[in-house]
Amino acid sequence: MSVVAPHARTSEERMPAVPSPGIRRRRRNPGASPWWALVFIGPTALGIAVFYLWPTVRTLIISFTKSGPFGGSEWVGIDNYARLFQDPELIGALRNTAIYTVIALIGIPLAVAIAALLNTTGLKGRSAYRTLYFIPVVTMPAAIALVWRMIYNGDYGVLNAALGAIGIDGRSWLTDPNTALVAIAVVGIWAGLGTNIVIFLAGLQGIPDTIMEAADLDGAGPVRKFFSITIPLLSPSIFFVSVISVIGALQVFDLIYMMLGRSNPAMPNTRTVVYLFYEAGFLDNDRGYAAAIAFLLLVIILLLTVVQFRLQKRWVHYE
């Protein structure tokens, strides 16, 4: 008869328990609480809700109302939208906005070319050139408008003086309905050129040198490398700049207001959608109609942005 000591354990009892392969123990991380994510996301989410989402919802609500002459408002349904789509000035504002946007997009290939030149290794004074191109970005729009009004002046403007020196008759650029919108678009391109150049310079400096060296070994020239290597690898930056350029061009107002004023004879040919919103909301005090214009512009920007994101799959290369 064998006697087992009370404190003795068999070999099976001394072996640690091995969990089943299909069962995994989860270790609870005390710092992985979802409340911490809310703490960090909360301020940004609150700012977006207060300064973006709520104004958008409020604008939509106001667009279905009509303001009284002494304050207050009444619900009118879709009357503001029906009036808007029958307004002959809307067609002109949409046309002028589209023309300005198309002209503003010319600044993208111009910025790409300048950025490629500034990215050249042997160029002297690159820092000075980059600073000069970026100065308009940090300049107040009022100062930009004042300077360019002097340049475009029909009597003593610098542009007409330069054209007269080569035998070309100048004109009053900002009062001529045929040239006012184009002249303002040129100022818009000049003012936003610095931002686009900085973005493209960052994209150019991210292109590996090994790719360019391989192209040199294959005998590719500068033009072939630019269109076959630089442009495809820079396409994500070009896509980003195109999106923000379209959005900014559709919202143009400050340059037109400060360079032309209200009594300019060229105003019918330069009135944009945002300027139409300004006239309805701030001059006519028709908040409901102005809100309908603003919401229509929001829908247009949203649709164009969606189209750009759909088309970018065909020409943007992320690898």
Overview of this protein structure:
- The structure is a single chain.
- The protein has helices at 11-14, 34-62, 79-85, 88-104, 107-118, 126-134, 141-152, 158-165, 180-205, 209-217, 222-250, 254-260, 273-283, 287-315; strands at residues 65-67, 73-75.
- The chain is mainly alpha-helical.
- It has a single domain (57-315), classed as MetI-like (MetI-like fold), CATH 1.10.3720.
- Strand 1 and strand 2 (73-75) form a beta hairpin.
- Helix 5 (107-118) packs across helix 9, helix 9 (180-205) crosses helix 11 and helix 13 (273-283) runs antiparallel to helix 14.
- Residues 1-8 have low confidence and may be disordered.
Keywords:
MetI-like fold, mainly alpha, disordered N terminus, two-stranded antiparallel ribbon, 14 helices, 319 residues
Cα distance, first to last residue? 79 Å
Q: Tell me the number of strands.
A: 2
Summed up, the domain count is: 1
Please identify which CATH superfamily we are dealing with. Answer: MetI-like
Class in CATH?
A: Mainly Alpha
Mean pLDDT over the residues:
86
Percent strand: under 5%
| Molecular shape | globular
Note poorly predicted spans. Answer: 1-8
- What CATH architecture would you give? Orthogonal Bundle
Main sheet overview: 2 strands, antiparallel
Number of DSSP helical runs: 14
Structural classification: mainly alpha
Strand order of the largest sheet: 1-2
Task: Give the fraction of residues assigned to helices.
Answer: 55-70%
